[in-house]
Amino acid sequence: MDHFENIGVLLQLIAMVMLLLKIVSTQDCTGLSGKAQILYALVFTTKFLDLPNDLKTSPPSFVLKVAYLFIAYLTVLSIHFIGTKHSDREHDIFRIDLLMGTCTLLALLSTHRNWTILPILWHFGVFLEAFALFPQIHLTAKTRYVGSSLLFYVGMIGCYRAFHIVHWLYLLSRGEHLENYYVAICGFGQFFICCGYFGWMLPIFKAQYAHLKNVDEGQSRVVAVVAVRVNGNLDVAKNASKSETSINN
């Protein structure tokens, strides 16, 4: 991998870590799709089936892939066991079985000359990664809620793909051929999906922020009015007590 691809991988890992920390620290999964994270865990599982070889040939790559798998599955477990009190499970109803079936069919078609289990699973992961955000998009369309952590996560995933695209363009500019054009096609597709989703989420997030700001300002005004009234009542009571004291004297 060159520097562009390394930066992209690092950005994706940061996005995953930040999402996991948010879930664990707040125990709140509102607006987050557990099904989308299940799909990402499947993506990493099927794409990283060469872990035994990496352990011998490339230990850094082995460690990185193990980190991906660990964080992905820990995120899935956290959503389903830690953030159960604040979640949108009733709206997280996207049919991932249809999506997985479509990706399986695409994997079989793309490996029709070599129907062995490892290439089929690897291509399945490549195709599934391009569409893994669909359950999350469906959930956002249902709830119309966008948290700051989700906005950051999608933005970082888009940046991850952007750096991979720069890497592919760099290879082509040097006259080199891409190892697998399916990866590039799916990568471009995922990038445009992330960009469209991010652009759609941003106005929703801004509207939520403006609403919360107005609510906070309204609550502050109410508190101020109540405080003034309480202070006024206290002053009246003090004056009344002074008057009674002077009359008695």
From TrEMBL:
<feature type="transmembrane region" description="Helical">
    <location>
        <begin position="62"/>
        <end position="82"/>
    </location>
</feature>
<keyword id="KW-0931">ER-Golgi transport</keyword>
<keyword id="KW-0675">Receptor</keyword>
<feature type="signal peptide">
    <location>
        <begin position="1"/>
        <end position="26"/>
    </location>
</feature>
<keyword id="KW-0472">Membrane</keyword>
<keyword id="KW-1133">Transmembrane helix</keyword>
<keyword id="KW-0813">Transport</keyword>
<feature type="transmembrane region" description="Helical">
    <location>
        <begin position="94"/>
        <end position="111"/>
    </location>
</feature>
<protein>
    <recommendedName>
        <fullName>ER lumen protein-retaining receptor</fullName>
    </recommendedName>
</protein>
<keyword id="KW-0732">Signal</keyword>
<feature type="transmembrane region" description="Helical">
    <location>
        <begin position="182"/>
        <end position="205"/>
    </location>
</feature>
<dbReference type="GO" id="GO:0046923">
    <property type="term" value="F:ER retention sequence binding"/>
</dbReference>
<dbReference type="InterPro" id="IPR000133">
    <property type="entry name" value="ER_ret_rcpt"/>
</dbReference>
<keyword id="KW-0653">Protein transport</keyword>
<dbReference type="GO" id="GO:0006621">
    <property type="term" value="P:protein retention in ER lumen"/>
</dbReference>
<comment type="similarity">
    <text>Belongs to the ERD2 family.</text>
</comment>
<keyword id="KW-0812">Transmembrane</keyword>
<feature type="transmembrane region" description="Helical">
    <location>
        <begin position="117"/>
        <end position="138"/>
    </location>
</feature>
<keyword id="KW-0256">Endoplasmic reticulum</keyword>
<dbReference type="GO" id="GO:0015031">
    <property type="term" value="P:protein transport"/>
</dbReference>
<dbReference type="GO" id="GO:0005789">
    <property type="term" value="C:endoplasmic reticulum membrane"/>
</dbReference>
<feature type="transmembrane region" description="Helical">
    <location>
        <begin position="150"/>
        <end position="170"/>
    </location>
</feature>
<dbReference type="GO" id="GO:0016192">
    <property type="term" value="P:vesicle-mediated transport"/>
</dbReference>
<dbReference type="Pfam" id="PF00810">
    <property type="entry name" value="ER_lumen_recept"/>
</dbReference>
